[in-house]
């Protein structure tokens, strides 16, 4: 009996919940407290927009309801956070949508922007200004509830219009019992990043299924390709049940990036295998793409590839092309961060070894 108890305890300690791109609800700085530079409160989240209150609400399901220009004046209202059974929809199970028009102020520099929706019963997908941001749980037919998870989404800064009106649309599915945006300190937050992002590359990327070597070329014309949100599984963006090869492409201006020998390209987690080309040059890869051999844990490996200084065009436009092979289930970029970081910044913060050479392991250990 004692051996069985010890075995159970060891298994409990070894258990790790599934990884996801959200984090536990953060503490808030005291109301009215103004943080000075370097103070404790400066390391705490700042609520930019309070989302508690009345939202527009409609039962049913229509993909057009995600669009920023959808006419929603005739929708009803519902108080958030609450379960919709307490707001006049007793006994309703199924799909419903929430929409809210908000004014977003100027975004603070060097901060991560997070949309916090608290706890949602059961599944939620978020769109901002018509652009897909992320999903918690899984909609039917592969239903998986996420009522116990905290629905927090990292928002690409490019999705938001500063000093202007923005539209948040939330698709919700409730399988049984209570449903809706049920609890939490809902809001749009600015949160400190563990390491400053030199250049944030999260957002809309060009995307195409298939596989051609010419798609790595910087001058390749990808204007006819679709666009998807990175990070985000491609199954959640119109490519349900697709397995095989696909390519992502994006271009970025590096004229504001300071020259450094220790720049690193962070691509978060990719499902399953990848090759990364910067301006046509292979700078990193995970797994055996040619044999399409998946060991099983590649989707949980954080991609962090050092950038050769001679490859990056500091004076202007750069093209990043990512070839991905997915064996089964989810495919593509599924967890951030995505962007350029400078390893020397980590060392100056004292979170990396004092040795002058860059240790990728130490850098990743302190980032994640």
What would you say this structure looks like, in words?
- With about 375 residues, the chain is mainly β.
- The chain has two domains: about 20-30 and about 40-190, Sandwich (Jelly Rolls), CATH 2.60.120; about 195-365, Galactose-binding domain-like (Jelly Rolls, Sandwich).
- It has helices at about 1-15, 345-350, 360-365, and strands spanning about 45-50, 55-60, 75-80, 95-105, 110-120, 125-130, 130-135, 150-155, 165-175, 180-185, 185-190, 195-200, 205-210, 225-230, 245-255, 265-270, 275-280, 280-285, 300-305, 315-325, 330-335, 340.
- The strands form four sheets. A six-stranded antiparallel beta sheet has the order 3-2-4-9-6-7, with no helix packed on it.
- A hairpin with a 2-residue loop joins strand 6 and strand 7 (about 130-135).
- The chain is globular.
Low-confidence spans:
1-42, 345-359
The chain-level structural class is mainly beta
Beta content comes to: 35-45%
What is the average of the pLDDT values?
83
Cα separation of the termini: 38 Å
Could you say which overall geometry the principal axes of the C-alpha atoms support? globular
Tell me the CATH topology of the largest domain: Jelly Rolls
Question: What is the helical fraction, as a range of percent?
Answer: under 10%
Helix-strand sequence: HEEEEEEEEEEEEEEEEEEEEEEHH
User: How many H/I helices?
Assistant: 3
* Strands, total number: 22
As laid out across the biggest beta sheet, the strand order is 3-2-4-9-6-7
Radius of gyration: 22 Å
* CATH architectural group of the largest domain: Sandwich
Number of domains: 2
CATH class of the largest domain: Mainly Beta
CATH level-four homologous superfamily name of the largest domain: Galactose-binding domain-like
Characterize the main sheet.
Answer: 6 strands, antiparallel
């Amino acid at each position: 009996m004692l051996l069985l108890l010890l075995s159970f305890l060891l298994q409990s300690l070894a258990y790790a919940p599934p990884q996801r791109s959200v984090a536990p609800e953060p503490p808030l700085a005291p109301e009215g407290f103004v943080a000075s530079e370097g103070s404790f409160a400066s390391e705490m989240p700042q609520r930019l927009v309070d989302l508690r209150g009345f939202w527009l609400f409609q039962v049913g399901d229509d993909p057009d309801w995600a669009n920023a220009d959808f006419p929603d004046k005739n929708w009803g209202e519902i108080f958030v956070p609450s379960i919709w059974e307490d707001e006049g929809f007793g006994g309703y199970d199924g799909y419903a949508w929430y929409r809210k028009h908000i004014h977003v102020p100027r975004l603070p520099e060097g901060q991560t922007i997070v949309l916090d929706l608290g706890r949602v019963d059961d599944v939620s997908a978020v769109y901002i200004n018509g652009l897909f941001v992320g999903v918690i749980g899984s909609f039917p037919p592969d239903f998986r509830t996420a009522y116990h998870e905290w629905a927090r989404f990292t928002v690409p800064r490019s999705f938001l219009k500063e000093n202007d009106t923005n539209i948040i649309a939330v698709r919700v599915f409730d399988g049984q019992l209570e449903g809706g945006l049920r609890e939490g300190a809902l809001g749009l937050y600015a949160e400190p990043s563990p390491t400053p992002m030199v250049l944030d590359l999260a957002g809309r990327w060009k995307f195409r299924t298939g596989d051609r070597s010419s798609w790595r070329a910087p001058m390749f014309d990808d204007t006819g390709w679709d666009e998807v949100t990175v990070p985000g599984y491609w199954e959640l963006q119109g490519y349900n049940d697709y397995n095989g090869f696909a390519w992502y492409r994006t271009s970025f201006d590096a004229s504001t990036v300071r020259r450094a020998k220790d720049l690193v390209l962070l691509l978060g987690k990719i499902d399953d295998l990848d090759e990364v080309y910067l301006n046509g040059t292979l700078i990193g890869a995970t797994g055996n793409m040619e044999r399409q051999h998946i060991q099983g844990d590649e989707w949980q490996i954080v991609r962090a590839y050092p950038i050769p200084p001679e490859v990056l065009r500091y004076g202007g436009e750069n093209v990043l092309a990512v070839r991905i092979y997915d064996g089964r289930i989810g495919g593509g970029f599924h967890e951030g961060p995505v962007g350029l970081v400078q390893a020397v910044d980590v060392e100056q913060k004292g979170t990396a070894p004092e040795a002058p050479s860059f240790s990728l392991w130490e850098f990743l250990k302190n980032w994640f």
